[in-house]
Amino acid sequence: MASNETLGGSIADASSPDTALLEALVPGYRIISHFFMSYLKIDINGYLQILIGFALLVGCIKYLHPTAMENISDLIISTAEIRMEDEVFNYMMYWISRQSHMKRTSRFLASLKFKHDPWADSDESDFEDEDSDDESWDGSKSRNNTTTTTTTTFDDYWAKMMNRDKYKSINFTPSEGSHYFRYRGHLIKLRRTEEQNRPRNFGRNERLWLSCLGKNPEILRQLLLEAQKAYIERDGNRTLIYRAKRDYDRSFSWIRCMSRSPRPMSSVILNQAQKQEFVDDMREYLHPKTRRWYFDRGIPYRRGYLLHGPPGTGKTSLCFAAAGLLRLKLYLLNLKTNGLDEESMSSLFASLPRRCIVLLEDIDTAGITKTRGKTVTPGDNPAIPAPNTEISTEGDFDESSKDTITLSGLLNVIDGVAASEGRILVMTTNHPDKLDPALLRPGRVDMSISFGYMSDNDIKELFASMYRFIGNGPRQANGPVKEKVENDEDSTREQEKRDVSLDARISNLCVSFAQAIPTGELTAAEIQGYLLNHKDKPEAAVAGVAQWVEEMRKNRET
């Protein structure tokens, strides 16, 4: 009877308003309560307040946990965020891929350098390997002040190169997630993440997070500076070349496309006085006193050059050689790039570094030759056409189109109110008479250099530059073989005699070669192309030049 009363009491409790409320909040609570009372003799209604308090505590912790952990992390952890679109991302990825701990990690991303890693696009390790192979191909190895000669056939050399090309360099970088390593005695956490909800056509969007214990982030700054130094020093004195590229979101940005050994200024065939004037003018502009002089007088600190002349006369070569000589980065921009509009061009110019060279090639073909007047005023600039000369508007773009570059848009970018300062602008054209005078006025074009066909002195200079190193290394029988033996005075004197004899021989051949080529008819590129067919045979080049000139004339007539 008592048990029935107890059971009845439990059922009555189960139908209480509190139980009904819990049943509404927790479906099945009535059954659970009955089970505990019947089999375990535990009335969970007595622990109701404790259960509710525990549930509230869990909810509060769940709600406050992210904020609390973030606040705690801010107090004891320093973190640096690195975004993929920034060049620091390239610094860090290059540095981390060359650390010893990457060889021990069990989670890594393996990729070929030419696929999608922007930090590895311009790695020159293959060129360095080929340079070392070229030395072995020359066949001279020095050991203990003695020279041993090894015979390497071209077939052996080429088989080695082809076998190497089969196996591309694989780069190993941390995969997505968290990685730990030690740097200068500090434990560093590297976390690599990728945005998952990004549309496919927008490409990858990664971020790196560097963290260390302690409120002082100095160790992270030191790490990033070391990564930057390692990334930059790998180039040495090479000339860095950037080009404008359209991103996945249709915006444009500068990307590094290659690095090249600097071109000697002596290899550019141009009047020596013009070359020297061009380089001296750039040096004077880059001098800090010149910059202060501009600022003190409120003059925009910009410099522009126009290189004009027939194709193949060395306009781009001069710009590239100047960039190497002054160790400036070279930025290439084609105004005919698909999707490039005035807003994108303004953004590109605004992101230029303070000291660099911007090259706009063949500006007359970009469709912005439309003049704002039928006549122009002649001046000292040889690129300005004569009076009453009608400027050709053939191929002009519709200035109302938002997807093209107009003349006014280009002028605003070059020297408008918001135009960037400190950069050097070089424009090249084959037809200067097609350019609007507004583009050529001082402040936009401060110096104009005319390139023409080869003169007699130019031909001699080009011939000498092609064959001045003919004596280096073993060559064919018709050329001298230059052997360098250290600490051997007799051999040194003999080599000096050979060098003198070689110089005299090349000088005589230069005269014969120049006499066989008519001046003012051929470009440097055409003559250089002919000489490349006789790289080690200057006599053969002289013997066949007359026939080649006749063939060139016939081809032009047809």
Account of the protein in words:
- Residues 120-137 have a biased composition (Acidic residues).
- Belongs to the AAA ATPase family. BCS1 subfamily.
- Keywords: ATP-binding, Hydrolase, Membrane, Mitochondrion, Mitochondrion inner membrane, Nucleotide-binding, Transmembrane, Transmembrane helix.
- The chain is built from 18 helices and 15 strands.
- The strands form four sheets. It has a seven-stranded mixed beta sheet with strand order 10-9-12-13-14-11-15. Strands 1-8-7-6 form a four-stranded antiparallel beta sheet.
- Mean pLDDT is 77; it is low at 1-12, 114-125, 139-149, 371-402 and 472-487.
- Helix 15 runs parallel beside helix 17 and helix 16 packs parallel to helix 18 (538-557).
- The chain has helices at 2-14, 17-25, 29-39, 48-76, 87-96, 125-138, 154-166, 218-233, 272-286, 288-296, 315-326, 342-350, 407-415, 437-440, 456-467, 489-516, 524-531, 538-557, and strands at 77-83, 108-112, 140-143, 146-149, 170-174, 177-183, 186-194, 206-213, 239-246, 252-260, 303-308, 330-333, 357-360, 424-429, 447-450.
- Helix 13 (407-415) links the parallel strand 13 (357-360) and strand 14 (424-429).
- 43% of the residues lie in helices and 16% in strands.
- It is α/β, with parallel strands linked by helices and 558 residues long.
- It has five domains: 2-75, no CATH class; 76-123 and 169-233, no CATH class; 137-168, no CATH class; 239-450, Rossmann fold, CATH 3.40.50.300; 456-557, no CATH class.
